[in-house]
Design a protein that fits this description.
The complex is a heterodimer.
Chain A (H helix, E strand, L loop, with lengths): L26 E8 L9 E8 L4 E5 L6 H8 L7 E6 L2 E2 L4 H7 E4 L11 H11 L4 H14 L15 H13 L5 E5 L7 H16 L3 E6 L2 H7 L2 E6 L2 E6 L1 H6 L4 E9 L6 H9 L4 E7 L7 E8 L6 H10 L3 E8 L3 H9 L5
Parallel strand pairs in A: 3-8, 3-9, 6-7, 7-8
Antiparallel strand pairs in A: 1-2, 1-4, 4-5, 9-10, 11-13, 11-14, 12-13
Chain B lengths: L4 H7 L11 H18 L1 H26 L6 H31 L5 H4 L5 H31 L9 H25 L5 H14 L14 H9 L1 H13 L8 H27 L2
Helix pairs in contact in B: 2-6, 3-4, 3-6, 4-6, 4-7, 4-10, 6-7, 6-11, 7-10, 7-11, 10-11
The chains are: A alpha/beta, B mainly alpha.
């Protein structure tokens, strides 16, 4: 629940960014539109952005925001309704075959060849891309080692864990040395260790100069990995900048995360409204907490957050509930998203 | 090798690719993958394609004839029809089932759709590969025929034409499978197979010559609509020309026309599934 109206007026300070100056962009997208047949609205509604060479570019948004559709267009699997998309200098609509030579894709779902071993998956992928035999053997061995898959190279994909599958798909995508690597929701369903390993690998790729475009609905992931982040919702880029600048755009704002033990007869909505009515409070969001932990509110305030603890406690008391926990926080990317859209990421 | 060195290697701009690499070579590489996988399981593949025609040949060609329920000479009518059946059915099953699975459950086809060749070429490769399987299944009928029936009708003078007709039959089956595999939703594939395969098998003139249906006019018309009829009749005309049959040239022309139409429909279906 949000007591604040949808605030679109805050988009302007961020504006649309461009890649690092003086370098030819790895990805150029102009006014991209996609409307699926019979859909009432555009899934991608006029998106424009550039990704610089060697940049890690994050797409942050909730499910259904248009991230995967945009990636689908850039990777030639979805035909746009309008606009232009160029990857490594190749127009993906006019020359999809040429574009597929220069891009690599790691999809959300396992699409490894189950009839082939791990190593054969890498080798055959390279053969589709015309990598000579000696070179692809060499490259497969190196990538299997680098991704920690060299202990069972002859195993079938079905015998591996989700994290290992993810690594295999990245290793496979790297076999043809793509100029731009697309990772669609790479850490969905991964355990924390596998996620950290993935983050490490993306950092290594970046260090080696590979351009990476990554979609996520996880703000930690976006903040950790990306040089710049595009926040996308309803098919539109709401903001685009470095994570630091996006958060700095929330200047003057602090947050209070409050946990409240509810009054059995009380109503979280009316308490939220009351909190929103406090002077200096910009927005109140009710968050989903762990089951049985009571109500959780995130309160965006102006000025010093600590100054609001007493008035908030007072209001909670008045509502017959009890304040059990307060955390004062700096804003993060999720707050930026909430600020832009009026709702939480998940 | 240090952990970073592979990344560094990979990070360099693509230059490792063969300079003259074109889409057709990618198509051949994909075909090589299919041949590799089938080759590894060749005995299983053979068992899969041989069993049904083997039993049909044994029961209809041997048992019924020896028991006196079928006239002597029926074997000669039956054999070309069963070669056609093996070609068409194996071709069909080799595209339909893999496509349904690869487009829905396994997504395996994505890596090929993301390879540097036109999307339609991936469909063509599927059909070519399925036709190869269909052709092998049809070719294997010859030694089996000799083994079960003692001898098979065969004329050296029409050998090349027989091979061409077997290729055409396999392609027709593969093209029908392309349509089934791309238009039928995954949860309907079982019922569709039952509804399509049985009529296809029994209206394709594999067990009887088409002209002999003169007295069963409606069934003759239905059979004339089945592409397999022209493969059965074509092979009959080439292998047992003394049995009444549809003119061989007409079988080639209608078979080719069907192939073009089925491929166009199948390619449209494939592109609809492959691209959004």
């Amino acid at each position: 629940m949000s007591t604040a109206p949808r605030q679109t007026g805050t988009v302007s300070p961020f504006g649309l960014g461009t890649g690092p100056s003086g370098r030819h962009p790895a990805v150029e997208v102009r006014d991209l539109v996609k409307r699926y047949p019979k859909a009432p609205v555009d899934s991608v509604a006029g998106v424009s952005f550039d990704v610089g060479r060697g940049e890690v570019f994050g797409f942050l948004g909730p499910n259904g925001a248009g991230k995967s559709t945009t990636i689908g267009i850039l990777t030639t699997r979805i035909r746009p309704t309008g606009g232009q998309a160029v990857v490594a200098g190749v127009d993906v609509v006019a020359d999809p075959v040429g574009a597929r030579r220069v891009l690599g894709v790691v999809p959300q779902q396992n699409n490894l060849d189950r009839s082939l071993s791990v190593r054969q998956n890498l080798l055959f992928h390279a053969s589709y891309h015309g990598i000579p035999r000696a070179r692809r053997n060499e490259l497969a061995d190196a990538l299997l080692e680098q991704f920690g898959l060299d202990d069972r190279p002859e195993g079938r994909p079905d015998d591996f864990s989700g994290g290992q599958i993810q690594r295999m798909m990245i290793a496979r995508a790297l076999m043809h040395a793509p100029s731009v690597l697309f990772l669609d929701e790479p850490s969905t369903g991964l355990d924390p260790a596998a996620r950290l390993f993935l983050w490490e690998k993306v950092a290594e790729l970046k260090a080696a100069g590979t351009t990476v475009v990554i979609t996520t609905h996880d703000m930690d992931e976006a903040a950790e990995l990306s040089d710049r982040v595009a926040i996308i919702d309803h098919g539109t880029v709401l903001a685009l900048d470095t994570p630091t600048n996006l958060v700095r755009g929330m200047s003057g704002e602090r947050t209070l995360d409050c946990t409240v033990e509810p009054d059995p007869d009380g109503d979280a909505g009316s308490l939220g409204m009351a909190l929103g009515g406090l002077a200096g409070v910009r927005m109140v969001d009710q968050l989903d907490g762990p089951t049985g932990s009571g109500w959780r509110f995130r309160i965006d305030v102006e000025g010093v957050a600590a100054a609001y603890v007493a008035p908030v406690a007072h209001l909670v008391d008045e509502a017959g509930a009890r304040l059990t926990d307060v955390r004062l926080g700096e804003p993060n990317l999720e707050d930026v998203f909430i600020h832009l859209t009026g709702r939480a990421l998940r | 090798m240090s952990p970073d060195s592979a990344v560094e290697e990979v990070g360099v701009p693509p230059g490792a690719r063969l300079p003259d690499w074109g889409p057709w070579r990618t198509g051949v590489a994909i075909l090589r993958r299919d041949l590799f996988v089938t080759g590894r399981e060749f005995p299983i593949f053979l068992a899969q394609v041989i069993l049904q025609p083997l039993f049909l040949l044994f029961v209809f060609g041997k048992v019924l004839t020896e028991l006196g329920y079928a006239r002597p000479g029926y074997q000669e009518v039956l054999f070309p029809g069963l070669v056609a059946l093996a070609a068409v059915l194996t071709g069909l099953q080799s595209t339909a089932l893999p496509l349904v699975i690869e487009f829905s459950y396994s997504n395996e086809i994505e890596d090929r759709l993301l390879a540097p060749l036109p999307v339609g070429a991936v469909a063509v490769e599927k059909v070519v590969f399925a036709a190869m399987r269909g052709f092998v299944a049809a070719a294997v009928m010859f030694p089996i025929g000799v083994w079960i029936l003692g001898s098979i009708p065969w004329q050296a003078s029409t050998g090349v034409a027989v091979v061409v007709m077997m290729v055409l039959g396999s392609m027709l089956g593969a093209a029908m499978g392309l349509i089934l595999g791309t238009y039928v939703p995954p949860h309907r594939i079982n019922v569709t197979f039952a509804l399509v395969l049985t009529p296809l098998i029994f209206t394709g003139c594999s067990q009887y010559p088409w002209p002999s249906l003169d007295h069963l006019r409606w069934f003759q018309v239905v059979s004339a609509l089945n592409p397999m009829t022209y493969v059965s009749e074509g092979l009959r005309g080439l292998m047992v020309p003394y049995v009444p049959h549809i003119a061989t040239w007409l079988c080639f022309v209608v078979g080719l026309a069907y192939l073009v139409v089925l491929m166009v429909i199948g390619m449209v279906g494939f592109k609809r599934r492959a691209l959004n």
